[in-house]
Amino acid sequence: MSDTTFDYVIIGAGTAGCLLANRLSADPGRRVLLIEAGGKDDYHWIHIPVGYLYCIGNPRTDWLYRTEADAGLNGRELRYPRGKTLGGSSSINGMIYMRGQSRDYDQWAQLTGDASWRWEQCLPYFKKHEDYYKGADAVHGVGGEWRVERQRLRWDILDAFAQAAQEAGIPHSEDFNRGSNEGVGYFQVNQKNGWRWNTAKAFLRPICYGRPNFEMWTRAHVKRLHIAPGADGALRCDGAEVWTGDELLNVRATRQVLLCAGAIGSPQLLQLSGIGPADLLQRHGIEVLHDAPGVGGNLQDHLQIRAVFKVQGVETLNTLANSWWGKARIGLEYLLKRSGPMSMAPSQLGAFTRSTPEQPWPNVEYHVQPLSLDAFGEPLHPFNAFTASVCNLNPTSRGTVRIRSNRFEDAPAIAPNYLSTAEDRQVAADSLRLTRRIVAQPALARFQPTEWRPGVQYQSDAELARLAGDIATTIFHPVGTTRMGRDDDPLAVLDSQLRVRGVAGLRVVDAGAMPTITSGNTNSPTLMMAEKAAEWVVREAG
């Protein structure tokens, strides 16, 4: 750490940061520093797929955030996992490869006034880093760093749910990533031969580690960005203050700082650095360098409503994992074949459909699991059951991320404001009814499904909406808190090329830049955005 001047400083070695580090350090003439607050991804549970159970809620790999008490959740707080290790949330997430729907990106193009965000223009950037197990075609790439595979398991109860969904009018799908994800099928996952494939393995190892122009600091916390007037009097970001645990270092970026700390960390750092809503900053004794009221606003997330059904005459993980013989069988299968329950993502079967026939596009997503429990991290139930979790893909509720103090060590206040609109409450009620309709189809009848949670006594819109507040939880997809937008949009933090408005030399490249949430899991769209940003940065360098 003796030399602290670089061409590019990347803050956050998560999904976007790892890809940017790879792309920007490819030219030996560019010196690149990657800063990560967490440690190395050398914890064995990061790499065994089922290890997310031991990474979420673990200070070694998780920031351990919690939300504020939420009125839409009837006063409940939620655990809010975010990855704190190399690979970021790609080291602890559900490993599901999901691009969303083509209309998501067409909407981004409209909101930003930039046609380069249209689906057809984004598709090449998905393909550029993809290594698709079936080979290349019109929408998939091979040979890239980001491995996409089929899951190495199946369950009779999930096959039956998929058949029931088809009986309810949802078509079968082999691939959710072709622009329209409507259908039911097993999710594709970011794994390689039964191991989790995180962005640190994909983009940093081994290639970046062997580049003399690349440097990486772990367990290094950025205290604030360094922002000051440039020669022309305009504000410019030219570095950051970094706390290593032993000393405070000032790093300098001669070209750009790329903030990739995520939809929670990036707005927090901007606010700590004097970029954000003026009243918030003044309240915490921070000098207002740039009054940007949109920083930390527009928080969007997918809220899943978990319905549990007891079943008879079919094995689920509940009973398999609740016996010593079952656990031994699970461990042996993974040891010998890298398959079975230890290789499985948190959700295995997916479905995308309309909550009611009047919806113009698939507006809900199912994550279906051959197990049940009271809450994440709690023991499995002692009876056979499956869980059908459903989320509103396009929530209209908006929340905030706000600093609590001027100390970088203090976690920000996260207020998702779930179910705060009539539209979201209606979709919640409708989606629970849809779940019941699927489960009532003939394909599941032989297993005698019985609704254990929430319970058939809840029927009206008001009852179901309130019930959703009682049982729903996040799927960990926060986005939008530093959103890009048009030049005339006062709440757009970034321009359409992810540059911070009003501050030169600074980009935000992470899920916070999304103006609206994608219709599915958010990890792979973030990689696509980073791929585009890397190209812009290189082009600007000449």
UniProtKB/TrEMBL annotation:
Q: Which residues bind FAD?
A: V222
> Any idea which UniProt keywords this protein has?
FAD, Flavoprotein
What does the record give as cofactor? FAD
Q: Where is the Glucose-methanol-choline oxidoreductase N-terminal domain?
A: 83-106, 262-276
Among the GO molecular function terms of this UniProt record, one is: flavin adenine dinucleotide binding
Q: Which domain of life is it from?
A: Bacteria
Query: Mind telling me which Pfam families this protein's record contains?
Result: GMC_oxred_C (PF05199), GMC_oxred_N (PF00732)
Family per similarity comment: Belongs to the GMC oxidoreductase family.
Q: Report what the protein is called.
A: Choline dehydrogenase
The species this protein belongs to is Ramlibacter pinisoli
Provide the taxonomic classification: Bacteria, Pseudomonadati, Pseudomonadota, Betaproteobacteria, Burkholderiales
